[in-house]
Known about the structure:
The protein is an alpha/beta fold. The chain contains 10 helices and 9 strands. It has helices at about 10-15, 35-45, 65-70, 75-85, 95-100, 115-120, 125-140, 150-160, 190-215, 220-230; strands spanning about 5, 25-30, 50-55, 90, 140-145, 170, 235-245, 255-265, 270-274. Strands 1-4-3-2-5-6 form a 6-stranded parallel sheet, sandwiched between helices. A 3-stranded antiparallel sheet has the order 7-8-9, with helices on one face. A hairpin with a 2-residue loop joins strand 8 (about 255-265) and strand 9. Helix 7 crosses helix 8. The termini are far apart. The structure holds adenosine monophosphate (AMP). Adenosine monophosphate binds next to helix 2 and strand 5.
Amino acid sequence: MKQMKIFKNKLTLNKKINGIKNLSFVPTMGSLHNGHKYLIKKGKKIGNKILVSVYINPKQFNSRFDFSSYPRDIKKDLNFLKKLKVDYVYLPNSKDIYSFKTKHKIYQDKASSILCGKFRKTHFRGVLNVVNRLLEIIKPNYILLGNKDFQQMKLIEMHIKKRKIQTKVVPCKTIREKSGLAYSSRNNNLSIKEKKIASRVYKNLIKFKNIVKKNSNKFKIFDLIEIIKRLGVNKVEYVELLNIKNLQKPKNYKTNFNIFIAYYIRNIRLIDNV
Ligand code: AMP
């Protein structure tokens, strides 16, 4: 059987992957779950080879607590990737990522200052910085990104387009547990009871989206926030309805809009969009 190759250094990685045609790339921060699995499977279908990176990027966290409490289990992750028959795994340290000058400057669209960007000021700069570097190191044909982090996916897409980078963004649907809860590495920090609360949040978003589609005048964001708070959510950071093409206020509420939310259960921050 073909062995999965693990690289900790970009130079050895480059030697191996240089010249591969149709390379798919899935960037992750580990604690892999079924959402990642979907991206990997899709990447395997559209590309000849697949590379998965596992790197918890300190620059995209805005609190020490959030960074240190982010779940980590590299042994489990490697087994997970082996089972999926991934070709290459890149496990860089910060020096490997940040010790070179990039060819492209980060393009940070103004859409980075809404939604999560309003509350996590340097977050998207950190995300774009690491993705820009990973793309220069790996030069993949495809990068697979989840709609779960919709704003992130859009901003990366805009950076790639603006800088004329030869990588195609492949957006992927959000994978959910049976309860509706979107898979997320952060779910590892939730108790069973807290996971139930998060799944009820999802169900309420779906319910409200249907109400809005039928009659947008009936919809009051304030009411939705109150309902969500009563479920046992500590804090709702934002709930916004936005057009998914341009992340602006929708012209109408029939199609092409999503409800975007960020909220806390205890001190665990969760995001979703439906
Ligand atoms: P992360 O490891 O959280 O940085 O996520 C790595 C990639 O997986 C990102 O493109 C995410 O949007 C995507 N992802 C995370 N959760 C899910 C999910 N439940 N369904 C689909 N994609 C996801």
